[in-house]
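does this look right to u?? adenosine-5'-diphosphate version
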Amino acid sequence: MFKLGVTGGIGSGKSTVTKILVENYNAYEFEADIVAKKIVAENEQLKEEFKQTFGSRFFDELGNLKRREFAEFVFSDKERTRKLNSLVHPKVKEAATEHFQKAKDEGRSFFVHNAPLIFEAGIEKQLDAVLVVAVSEENALKRTIERDKTTENEVKLRMSKQMPLAEKIAKADFVIWNDGGFEKLKTAVENFYEKHLKDKL
Ligand code: ADP
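got this back:
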């Protein structure tokens, strides 16, 4: 089964593009961030590893991770971020393998790995092609603030940690620009499917 990576910066439209592929072409969506969040919340072994690596002060009396404080602590430091990723990524990879099987069992036509950090985590090696959804910083900012009900500074901080868009585009097999409206995006995804995907499935 064909594995397509869909990546791009925050608020670029990855989830929207993936949704179009699922609804129109029977794709299976693997949303890496959601799966990672679930793993972090539920995997006891991983929680133990977090405690040993970062200390138990990030857990409340019920054993739940204090996500906000933990995220602030980890993502403010490159080495801590690298360590966290080295603990979480193998588990997400395992989950992706299970989901891939599920996609096959369900008779889906292809598998979409939707993740902001495909290139940063080297996941492209396990995929057949990677599509980058690209958008101007202005639109990404505006749309993310609206979607997440958050502030400009907070989104800018998240953006500053991303791989620059030009680098992602250079590594990508395909690029879809998403600076127009929803209808334009839908047409671009349809064209992409017809031209580059359909014959490979
Ligand atoms: P990502 O998954 O890359 O973070 P989303 O697909 O969630 O991005 O899109 C970010 C926000 O922008 C969402 O609220 C989405 O509905 C909106 N959006 C996406 N594409 C467009 C578009 N072409 N025009 C207007 N809003 C859009």
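The chain has a mean pLDDT of 96. idk if thats expected tbh
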